[in-house]
Amino acid sequence: MASSLQRIGKRPSEAVVLICAVVLLVIWLSTFQRMDFEREQAVAATMHSNSNLAIAFEQQTSRTLMAAEQVAALVREQYLRTGDNIGLAQWAEQRVIREDMFTIISVINAEGNVVDSSYTSARANYSDRDFFKAQRDSQSDELFINPPVIGRISGEARVPMSLRMSRPDGSFAGVVILSVGPSNFTDFYNQADLGGRGMLELTGLDGVVRARKIGQENSYGQDARQLGWFMRQSEAQTGSFIDDGALLDGVARIVSYRVLPGYTVMVAVGTAYDDALAPVLQRRTYYLAAAGAGSAILLVFAYLLIVQLDRRRKTVIALEASEVLYRATFHQAATGIARATPEGEILEANQKFHDMLGFESDELNGRMLVELSDPDCRHKTQRFLARCVSEDVSGASSEIEKSYRRKDGSRLWVHEALGVVREADGSPLYLVIITQDITKRKELEARLSYDAMHDMLTGLANRNMFYDRLDHVLASARRNGRLAAVLYMDLDGFKEVNDTHGHAVGDMLLQHVAQRLQSSMRAEDTVARFGGDEFAIVLSAISTETDSQKVIIKLAEVLSEPYRIEGFVLQISASMGAAVFPVNGADARALILHADGEMYAAKRIRQKNAES
């Protein structure tokens, strides 16, 4: 120390100016680095949040389209079996079709004339409509989602969805059409927190917007082919990016998009860039003010120090003042700070560091950083320390996210920056550890990740996880030449429970059903709730084709046992259908459709037996 003071004393002004310049550089580089880091974190967090919202919007839209496809298939079956008048108006009055959004359902013959409709006064010809031409000229049995048009029956903007009807010889027999208001698709906006300038959009892969909502304004029918998310979907079916908004409304947004599997539409969710970064911009002002104030203080201190250094006799006083300033900063900092040996033994730590880990003052001195780390992170921490100490550049700093074990045994997640202070020859002198508590952020990330893959009411896998597990099972079955199966079920009598005892009892009944299903299946099988009273199961491996029917019989017995809920004894049953891979289908969609058809067939047989 004495030799250093002697060297500084020879040219005090130059030394202080150099040190001041370096510190100012560090302050401003650190400030701008922090602002850039927080901006990137805010953008990443918004992209993650929007991705989860896009998944939820995709699931809601998929449920709507699947429900439309099921209703259209049911109407088509009745029409082809009974003829022109199947009484759709009576179906609407009797609520045979429970989806409220399908207010108008019509059957159109091969000439384009409406022969039956849930809208009693409906009489019109649709032979010139795109959906009629598309189904007439195609042999595929797929739901066609038309761009929005003004309905000839309702006189309002509607999104027609149609399903082809074919005669036994394969010739065109007409279409079943359901129409939905564009705003029905964007009602999800009210559930999502996208800010006052957020965007929600459902677009066809033909480039026409089916429904869009920006803020509280609904629109439809625009050309989306030049928009960023539409152009990107041809290369990647999911993604997130920052869009400048130049082709939409001039508002830059952070956008996440997804293409719906099995349908020719995509969803997009956007949050205004300025809204997402508003907290960051507020903190930016604070950081700039703090850096400016710190720089001013530093310049004043440097000037005073030069004066003191020029007067050699005040050198010791200046050093002591500097030490006081360091101690005040160390102990009063809002983040945890510790100083440790290059091996990781703590030499001293401020009160904030002790409080974060739940120890009393000075109780951490002499403890090893690796020893305090969570057991799962100890090897990672050891490698991190070794890498930082081995850096050749003096003053090198690295960052890590890791977890400690508090004194009470709970886990503390931290963002930790480690700096190495070195001797003049480059050998490490000691480590400076700056720690920020990020436990709440980690818990939030874990919760969002769980919610994205599970049903909130029953805790079962949701549709997203179901398809993921099914894809893995089918891949394994293909590789090993094994059989696998999908079960699809719908509860019979559940609506009566809801109507009689209320939705709270209905929800508890669904939870009991979920518990029975889960406890009846093997650990390697997957039980999922698709929504409402619909459930699906993946049987990861079966020995014979008849095994799935054995499982159905077993589950039917389990589910038919009485349920005792809130003092009520409830009785329900279930209609189930099965599909065996590869006998009934080679992919997830084919298996689900087959199992769904088998389930509806079982339901019709049950209803016919009940009527007789």
Notes on the structure:
This protein is of the alpha+beta class and 612 residues long. The protein has 18 helices and 23 strands. Strands 1, 2, 3, 4, 5 and 6 form a 6-stranded antiparallel β-sheet that branches. Strands 9-8-7-12-11-10 form a 6-stranded antiparallel β-sheet. Helix 2 runs antiparallel to helix 8, helix 15 (494-501) runs antiparallel to helix 16 and helix 16 (503-520) crosses helix 17. Residues 1-9 have low confidence and may be disordered.
Topology (SSEs and partners):
Blueprint: H1 2-10, H2 12-82, H3 88-94, E1 104-109, E2 114-117, H4 130-136, E3 144-145, E4 149-150, E5 157-166, E6 172-180, H5 182-186, E7 199-204, E8 209-214, E9 217-219, H6 228-233, E10 238-243, E11 253-259, E12 265-272, H7 273-276, H8 278-310, H9 315-332, E13 336-340, E14 346-349, H10 351-357, H11 369-372, H12 378-390, E15 397-405, E16 411-422, E17 428-437, H13 439-451, H14 463-480, E18 483-492, H15 494-501, H16 503-520, E19 526-531, E20 534-542, H17 547-560, E21 563-565, E22 568-570, E23 573-581, H18 588-611
Antiparallel strand pairs: 1-2, 1-6, 3-5, 4-5, 5-6, 7-8, 7-12, 8-9, 10-11, 11-12, 13-14, 13-17, 15-16, 16-17, 18-20, 18-23, 19-20, 21-22
Helix pairs in contact: 2-8, 15-16, 16-17
